[in-house]
Amino acid sequence: MHDFEERLARATARIDREYFQLPVFGRESAAYRERQYCYELYHQLRQGWPTGGYHLSGEIDKSGHPVIRGNDLDNTKPDFLIHIPEDMDHNFAVLEVKPITGRLGGVKKDVLTLLAYLEHGQYERAFYLVYGEPSEGKALDYAKAQIIANKAQKRIDLWCHRAARVPAARVAF
CA separation (Å) from 108 to 57, 68, 111, 114? Predict the structure, then answer.
């Protein structure tokens, strides 16, 4: 998965406006809907995904997992996992997604989930992808603050996807 960052950038660049912000009947402005965005991101990532090797999985519920118990991993459902199922030695990356309008509590939960998968789930990398126009919310600032507060800025790659049809990019601290 040496090219995962390139794959992520290409996939986000193919996300159209209606998946980036869902039009809502009776409202002038569209709404950020994380699940809608994640479904489309999953679809775009799967385009050209290599066969064999690492799998891309979405929202795998880890409750009841025979190996992952306790350690802040119970009852977690990360947005995406890149791993080889049935092989704890090949857990490549965990990815959480949040709209720019996300609340502080959700950002905190996501950062703690990412850290737990790095520390106890044997994942090599963690990505936090915030999508949306930065002027519309504080989730990006919250994510930065939480990652820094948890002294994890070198362990979690923070990415921002600012607009539909443009690639997401890593955020520098």
Answer: 22, 21, 5, 10
Asked whether 163 and 134 are in contact (CB, 8 A), the reply is no
State the amino acid at position 104 in one-letter form: L
Query: pLDDT by residue (tens digit) across 75-104?
Result: 789 999 999 988 888 999 999 999 999 998
Whole-structure pTM value: 0.93
Helix (H) / strand (E) element for 139: namely: helix 139-149
Domains defined for the chain, CATH in brackets: 4-170 (3.40.91)
146-159 pLDDT, tens per residue?
888 887 778 999 99
Cβ neighbours, 10 Å, residue 118: 19
